[in-house]
């Protein structure tokens, strides 16, 4: 009796999973919009999803014809001598010298004592924005910290460096 019950359960589970597969295929097909490209070919593109917010994407340079190029006023800033327990603050200016929007996806510091603030919106070609970096001088000695920017440039990452000589 247990074998028959188990077999019936397995068959019911298989049938239910097949129906789910058909439903997900149908939903997937509904979410693909067919469009005609300029050359006359038919192209399938994802339909807009109203539940997904518009966020910057690493595909920005790919979806547009061209390249984003990040040009900086400087890539290294030396604070010189700082007293332990103080903070140093600087700004790097980034200009988009490419021909598509420049998107800074993320900015990560090499240490928790360094905090970058970067523009969250795309930088249009020819436009400039500021990247603020605050350094907390917590440890004495010569310090060198980096901020790695993840971007939609061809290099995919840009590196900014700050330096300081921290004294007691």
UniProtKB/TrEMBL annotation:
Listed Pfam families: DUF1573
Biased composition, class Basic and acidic residues, residue ranges: 24-33
InterPro entries xref list: DUF1573, Ig-like_fold
Superkingdom of source: Bacteria
Comp. bias intervals (Polar residues): 34-45
Gene3D superfamilies, A to Z: Immunoglobulins
Position of the signal peptide: none
Stretches for region Disordered: 24-52
Protein name according to UniProt: DUF1573 domain-containing protein
Organism for this UniProt entry: Paenimyroides ceti
Origin organism lineage: Bacteria, Pseudomonadati, Bacteroidota, Flavobacteriia, Flavobacteriales
């Amino acid at each position: 009796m247990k074998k028959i019950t188990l077999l019936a359960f397995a068959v019911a589970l298989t049938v239910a999973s097949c129906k789910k597969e058909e439903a997900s295929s149908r939903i997937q097909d509904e979410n693909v919009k067919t469009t005609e490209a300029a050359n006359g070919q038919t192209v399938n593109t994802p339909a807009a999803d109203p539940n997904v917010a518009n966020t910057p994407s690493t595909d920005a340079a790919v979806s547009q014809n061209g390249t984003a190029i990040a040009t900086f006023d400087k890539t290294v800033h030396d604070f010189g001598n700082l007293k332990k327990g103080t903070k140093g603050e600087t700004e790097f200016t980034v200009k988009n010298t490419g021909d598509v929007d420049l998107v800074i996806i993320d900015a990560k510091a090499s240490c928790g004592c360094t905090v970058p603030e970067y523009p969250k919106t795309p930088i249009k070609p020819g436009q400039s924005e500021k990247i603020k970096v605050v350094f907390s001088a917590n440890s004495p000695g010569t310090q060198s910290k980096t901020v790695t920017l993840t971007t939609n440039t061809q290099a995919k990452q840009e590196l900014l460096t700050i330096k300081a000589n921290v004294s007691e």
